[in-house]
Amino acid sequence: MTTSTVAWDTYSKQRPERRPVNAAGETTWFNWTQYPDHGPGAEVLGVQQGHRVLDLGCGKGGNLAHLATLGARAVGVDVSPAQLQAARERWSGAGLSLHRRDALEFLTAETGEDFDAVYSVFGAMWFTDPVRLLPAVRARLRTGGVLAFSQRPPVKGCYGCQASYINRGDDEDPLVVRRWDYELDDWHGLLAGFGFRDVRTKILPAPPGPRTIGTILVRAVA
Ligand SMILES: C[S@@+](CC[C@H](N)C(=O)[O-])C[C@H]1O[C@@H](n2cnc3c(N)ncnc32)[C@H](O)[C@@H]1O
């Protein structure tokens, strides 16, 4: 197993499963943010019946399962066997197509099909150099297809490749994965530079309460 796989398997064991129902009583839903019952939903992607959608870093598959209930052909890719195992167990009847693969490798595979939407929620889009990932996504989106992704905003002054730490036991060093942080204007420039159009970027504010860190949401069209 690679360091990254071990790190994300470790992360997986620390993360609780998605709740059985959300505050609205729904059994599936789409959440772009780090907060429950907060922010926009699947409408950001404009997914229709029969659309092929790809989740980069799908984790335990909750968002993907929701898109499947809307009639999408839902494909997920993730490097973590533990995350994918959890997705397979929780959403066994949802018809998800799940692949244990690095996102960039999956996108650049020669046999790849095109997608109507590609998205990533605190996923591989955040943990891969966008200079490498964005052209690969662009190449696999049909013309008019949508790319959308969310992640935490950068710490002011800390841009480009940053370290994320995944804690282990008290006697072990944390595991480290790399993430890429940018301000909204930089995301705009990166996406436009790789041929995306209608680029929209925003920060969704945190919900009322003690937490203050919002969520970057980026949407662009191929
Ligand atoms: C913070 S979790 C988010 C999971 C999920 N999107 C969610 O919203 O719950 C990040 C996920 O991205 C996956 N991941 C990180 N880097 C990846 C890469 N290069 N290729 C594929 N998956 C990756 C991890 O294994 C993990 O499941």
TrEMBL record:
**Name of the molecule in the record:** Methyltransferase type 11
Entry coiled-coil feature ranges: none
Q: Which ranges carry the Methyltransferase domain?
A: 53-145
Q: SUPFAM superfamilies in the record, alphabetically?
A: S-adenosyl-L-methionine-dependent methyltransferases
Question: Origin, by domain of life?
Answer: Bacteria
Per the record's keyword annotation, is Transferase included, yes or no?
Answer: yes
Give the region (Disordered) as residue ranges. 1-20
